[in-house]
Amino acid sequence: MRDVSIIGIGQTKVGEHWDKSLRELAFQALEAAMHDAQVERVDALYVGNMLSGELTGQEHLGALVADFAGLRGIEAMKIEAACGSGAAALRVGYIAVAGGLCDIVACIGVEKMTDKQGDIATSSLATAADADYEALHGLSFVGINALLMRRYMHEHGYRKEDFANFAINAHANATRNPYAMFPHPITAQQFAEAKPVADPINLLDSSPIADGAACVILAPTSIAREFTDKPVRVRAITVATDTVAVHDRRDPLYLEGAAISAQKAYAMAGVGPADIDLFELHDAFTIMSALSLEAAGFAQRGKGVALALDNAISLDGHIPITTMGGLKARGHPVGATGMYQIVEVAMQLRGEAGPNQVRNARLGMAQNIGGSGATVITTILEADQ
Amino acid sequence: MEVMKPVRPVGIVGYGAYVPRYRLIVEEVSQVWTGGNVVPPVREKAVPGLDEDVATMSIEAARNAVARAQRVCPGFSPQQLRAVWVGSESHPYAVKPTGTIVAEALGTSPYIQAGDWQFACKAGTEALQAAIGFVGSGMADYALAIGMDAAQGRPGDALEYTAGAGGAAFILGPLDFALVEIEGSISYVTDTPDFWRRQYEKFPEHAGRFTGEPAYFHHISSAATALMEAMKLTPADFTYAVFHQPNVKFPLKVGEELGFRREQLKPALLVNEIGNTYAGSALIGLTAVLDVAQPGERILLTSFGSGAGSDAFCLQVRAPAPHDGVWTTRQYVQRRRPINYAQYSRLKGNYKLN
Amino acid sequence: MEVARFWRTTEQRYRLVGEVCPRCHTKIFPPRDVCPACEAEAKTLYQFSGKGEVYSFTTIHSAPRGFEKYAPYMVALVRLEEGPLVTAQLTDVDESEVYIGMPVEMVTRVLREDDKRGMIVYGYKFRPVRQAEAERQLA
Lengths: 385, 354, 139
Fold this sequence. Notes:
heterotrimer; B: 354 residues; alpha/beta; Peroxisomal Thiolase, Chain A, domain 1; globular; C: 139 residues; mainly beta; five-stranded antiparallel β-sheet; three-stranded antiparallel β-sheet
């Protein structure tokens, strides 16, 4: 197996791109990444996406994007794993390069959500849940997270406002990210007064649906320096699964898939949580930040929220998270999100995070979660300088 | 006229009621449509929730009936039923039986009858007659008969003041473990168009005051009188008399004209609290009586259905009904969540959304 | 209209018929044919009692397609007394009355309708246990 490195990154601003179609968004991110890597051709293209069929009536994205980008003829496929689709595309690209099947591979995450009204997006997102036993009962994705959050508060004795710092930290970091959807700060008072969505979740617990695309170019580490002087090495990328339905889990408040995925990643990279300098986690809702921190070994069970309360999650904290705004404030174009996380960790490791730079960042981790925890992909990247 | 009597004795081995929890104070209808000019014929009426219809209400009443049957009849199971018959004028589907939905929810055997009955407000007792015959002939050991409605009334119409929701379910079986014996019955029908709903129409029409004398009073009196004469009984032989209750006035008037005293009529009278439950109306009156009746007491039950006809039954109580773990009719009546006219209109689907 | 899809799960939806593992006797709902505890084949049908308690709950204000006309409505995770957790709506109860640990029982209600012309989908929901509610009202 060959070592794999990221030799180029690209992203579009996250937001409501009324003037751009799905293929244009994908191409914009791909073009930026190929330009960054200074390559004109790739051997294969993997497109991570969740909802193109539901929301734009378009599947078959591999061929579509390859053709639109002028790469007709190459290997190209769409990869789907709900909100984990972005990192899933990276995993497939990694396998292709590490296995020696391809040399230069582009991995895109793209989602176009605003062509349909919000209620349709709500229904479409619920397709990541169990259609027969969760969605049939009118449960939305917000609803699933609300069920987890209420139980978590009940078991661990937190109040609603204890979750505020996850959102406040994300928004603070987004103010300095030109690609973020919500580059404005929020206050604890705004959080406390935000409109309820599905009690106890309010608007500021929740990440916004959006359009966006992000892309990375992979190459064997052995030739990475031919393309860039700032290659970022993929030390681990691992996928683990759990039950699709929350009610089927052994313990709904423990993201077993996330724990297995993280443990596999630590083992693959030969590191532990203490070695990680920053962690781009899947903060679709504030409760997911807490559960993700716990499952990945940064906090004991029930102590994930305490990390936020202790301010350990800020840029100069013990474990900085959502350093460019996270899903909450950078925005959550679902199938693209996993790739945004990778691009953002790579920026940190390349020392290109500007005012958001985590000092001496050498080892960064991203965790992309599909559904309410059914597919979890953990990636550990290392600065190779 | 000779009394109808099954070949083998038949009794009620289990029964159950259902009333949804929402209540509209009917004075609101008067306020909205007449500025308070109309004196409401009942105080309040039961309204089904957004997730309720005749199938779901029948399922709960039937589950209560099964629970009582299991407490008096050793080893009884829904698998022993050979018929699930639902009488209603608000079946959820115009074409597709309610009975199969109820049967599936109860977990009956597939080897059953499950047709729906339709005869305005006596659809439920029509199903009851059939079930008595089914068991009494020996074709079946157990049959389930339900009368249930989620009644419709055009906004502002006289019917809107009373159109309620609820009903009851009865399991008929051999006499051995029965709570109540069916001593005999008589039905009386004529072609009398006092109330109807044409195919594809949402709300029923009625013939105003014509619904009284030639319809309600004539048919109930004819059936009840014929039954008492045939059985050589007088009102004094009955502890309770239960009539179809479209409002408070009619059942009291017809009962007194037949020679019953108020205390014989009162225990079955629920219409002031839940409205007219149409196909469920006489039958839920019966369950209210069965909840309190003692062995040896006799009950006259007479329904009325527009179009028109009455089924009269003579019942005798054999054992007090078990209530452990099963709600009584009174408990359903007392479970109430008042709603205003706007909320009521939403629950009834009277707002046009698209 | 997805007639066949609903038809094949009628039994489980109308009256909570799940499975029991013949090896370790774990009760399984929703049915999944393989025991989640010991991974043995488990296709023996099992009738659940319908009794349980609220594990968590929320109120849905922004409803997915097909549920708009019922909003706001409450969805809960219910811990059945036989062990499994099940996702279902709560009915016949106000939000202010619900609490974690509240005893509930299964009722069969309308889950949704396709539209005025389509089929009606019935299935399990939960409501406060009648006995507990009766006692509360008497008190």
